[in-house]
Structure formats: C-alpha cells, structure tokens
Amino acid sequence: MSTVIGRRLVALVAVLLGLSVIVFALQALIPSDPARAIVGASASPAVVAAKSHELGYDKPLPTQFAKFLGRMVHGNLQDSLRTRNPVADDLRTFAPATLELALVSAMLAAALGVGLGLLLTSGWRAARAARLILIGGASVPSFLVALLAILLFYSALHLLPASGRVDDKFIITDGPTRLLLVDSLLHGQPNVFFDALKHLVMPAFTLALVPALAIARTLDASLTQVMREDYVRTARSKGLKERTVVLKHALRNAAGPTFTMGGLQFGLMLGGVVVVEQIFAWPGLGLYLDQSIGYSDFPAITGTTILLGTAYVVVNFAVDLAQAWADPRIREV
C-alpha cells in the first residue's frame, strides 16, 4: 500500500506542476498587460513600466515562471484587481461556501448514485424504464435543472428559497469552520441550521443530479458483470440471500469503476459550480470567479483556478487510494 501511495503522490505533484504551467502559459499568452490593469488605464507609460518591473513582468518567461511558482508555494497570489484585497484573503472568504455546497452535493450524489445502482441490480420490475430515465436525465444540463427547480419549488410551491446562503434576518456568528451547517450547530442555532439547509437543497441537488446518475449507471454495469462470477454463484449455492450476496460479496469488487467515475464526476461538479452559483447567487468561488472574469482580474482567476484544480487532484488521489483498498490487485501493479 505504501508503494501505491508513493506513486500517487508523485503523480499528484506532477499534475499540480502541469496545472501551474498551463495557468501561467494562458496568463502569458492573453493579449493584456496586467501592469496596466493594476495601475489603471489613465496611468502614464513610465508608471506602467515601473509597475511591470516591480512585478517582474519585464523578465524572461522562465524567470517569471520560477517567481510564479515561488509565490504559489508561499500562498502569495497577489492582489485582486477588482476587490483590491489579497487574493488569498478573498479565497478564504468565498471558499467555505463552495466547500459546503460541494461536500453536501458529493454526499447527495454518492447516496443517490449507490442507491439507484443497487435498485437497478436488484431486479426491480421497472428497471428497464429506470435505465431509460437515467440516460435521459444524464443529458439534461445543470442550468436547466436549476431553472426548473426554481420555477417549481420557489415560484409555484413557495417551499424553498431561490438565492443566497441564508436569510438576511439571521445574525451569523463566525465559527471555527465557516461552514454554516456545522457552525450553527456548534453555536446552538438550530434556526440558522434549518434555514441554511433550505438554501442548500436546490443548488446541491442541481450539482448532484448528473453525477448521481453517472455513478448509478457505472455501479449497475459493474455489478451486473460481477454477479456472473463464480464466487457469486458459489455464495448463492450456499443459500445466502440475494441482498447478502450483493452487499457482502459483490459490492466491494464492483466498487473500483464506481470510485473512478465518482472522481471524474467530482471534477465536473467543480466545473458546474460556476454556473450553479451564478443562478442561485451562492456566495462562493464560482460567483467570485465569474465576477473576476468580467473585470479581467487575472490574479483572482489564477488563484481560483489553482485552488479548484488542487481540490480536484486531491480528491482523485483519495479515489485512487480507495480503489487500492477495494481491489488488492491494484496494489500489486
């Protein structure tokens, strides 16, 4: 297992380095002068040149990249051109909302995906119709799901709020985690907890729907193949119940492809955060990134991209370890 962890760590560092190269190259290739953007359009050429020299933009690209990596390692992401705050401070402000949304969405996607996958494998009478629904549902874009949810649960039924993270009437106490669901419980504020949960339902379901359907289809296909193996027939011949055969003998061996799909879908979920947070006015990294793009705020765009990319790589690292745990054959590769 230690060999697997070592190889995955090397791959993780390599991927993060590649991501840094791509982000730096895109920033260098974009026909815009960051020094001009910082000092303003009315600044004189001498002021622009001085700022460019201060930031090292007049140095050769390899030197700029080395300085860029050094800043990344030390957490110095420069100042946002839009908010005039350090990008690292802005990320600490907006990241908890996205983290909370992503965690709830991931748990919801995992629960729905595994539940639907097991339901399809159980021989349910309507399994064929359910598979068609899964295929159709996977093709529905997230923005359409969000709009339909708002029309139904907010406009028509008046059950759920359509925007924001919590109602303005509540006084939010800064907690140790900055996750509203956790901190409201730690501070004994059940009213804040339930209001934050109501605000989470629609954006979390919107983000979780497509990943859940993909996980369900992958688990169903994997379980269908595993259930034909000899050891499953042996377990059945011993008189074990079908539920016991599936949960205790087949599920772990079918988990590998499901873990892989879950990791890929988490990446797609991070990409969908930008759209979903815009629609629901969710005060997270997606909304921050969208506003930064409108201002050509390259430090903010770079910092947000690096942070989301790092989260994706770390999650897939955890998925690789989970696969190695579920399938001992991977440890021997």
UniProtKB/TrEMBL annotation:
Matching PROSITE patterns: ABC_TM1 (PS50928)
Record membrane topology: Multi-pass membrane protein
Localization terms from the record: Cell membrane
One matching Pfam family: BPD_transp_1_N
Keywords attached to this entry: Cell membrane, Membrane, Transmembrane, Transmembrane helix, Transport
Similarity section: Belongs to the binding-protein-dependent transport system permease family.
Name the UniProt record assigns to this protein: ABC transporter permease
Native species: Paraconexibacter antarcticus
